[in-house]
Amino acid sequence: MYETIMQAALKIVSRRRRTVLEMRGKLFEKFPGEDVVIEKVLVRLLEMKYLDDYSYVQAFARDRLKFRPRGKKMIEFELKRKGVDAATAARGLADLEIDEVETARKIFALYKKKSSFKRAKNQRASVFRHLASRGISFAAAQRVVTESRIED
After folding, report:
1. How is residue 105 annotated by DSSP?
2. Distance separating the N- and C-terminal Cα atoms of the chain
3. Is 23 in contact with 45 (CB distance < 8 Å)?
4. Rounded to the nearest 10 degrees, what angle do helices 86-96 and 53-67 cross at?
5. Rounded distance, CA 99 to CA 103, Å?
6. How confident is the model over 23-49, as pLDDT tens digits?
7. Which of 6, 10, 36, 55 is deepest in the core (most CB within 10 A)?
8. For residue 41, which of 18, 23, 55 has the smallest C-alpha distance?
9. Within the chain, how many helices (H) and strands (E) appear?
10. Would you call 57 helix, strand, or coil by DSSP?
11. What span, in angstroms and rounded, lies between the C-alpha atoms of 13 and 114?
């Protein structure tokens, strides 16, 4: 049974990166009642570096910042939902040195193209709400709003 579960795990991890918790869930779903064997497979995957939550954090954050910009708080929240412990997420994000003001500028640039921004009666408040909903800190949001010279 070990070989069968290992092959299934390698197939799962070959499609895309997974956290340890995600992989555990997939394997328990596919092989109910094989708890001991699944744990052995997970240990082996960790030893072989096919599973590594720290690397997952860094790759996830880089992709998120590039394709769907989010603030550090929002990325931490998403990682928590994926089963990454807070210490690993914090360490991985700290090592990336995320510039939250630059991220806020990117989010604002995308937002100001939307009709909801153009229709907003109070654009300044609308930008603050939008940036906050993307996990941007108040200080970074305030700086971007000030730089953009939005008048209300």
Report:
1. H
2. 66
3. yes
4. 50
5. 6
6. 999 999 999 988 898 999 999 999 998
7. 6
8. 23
9. 10, 0
10. helix
11. 37
Euclidean distance between CA atoms 85 and 97, whole angstroms: 19
**Whole-number Å distance between alpha carbons of 37 and 57:** 26
DSSP state of 95: H
Residues in the chain: 152
DSSP class of residue 33 equals: T
Do the Cβ atoms of 103 and 69 come closer than 8 Å?
yes
Query: What's CA 142's distance to the chain center, in Å?
Result: 23
CB 93 within 8 A of CB 72: yes
Please tell me the pTM assigned to this model.
Answer: 0.76
- C-alpha distances (whole Å) from 74 to each of 81, 93, 114 are 11, 12, 21
Tell me the two tokens of residue 69: 């910009």
Kindly tell me the burial class for residue 71, based on how many C-beta atoms sit within 10 Å of its own C-beta (0-12, 13-18, 19 or more). Answer: buried
Pair of tokens at residue 24: 């555990």
Residue in the structure block whose two tokens are 């570096």: 49
Query: Tell me, what's the pLDDT at 34?
Result: 85
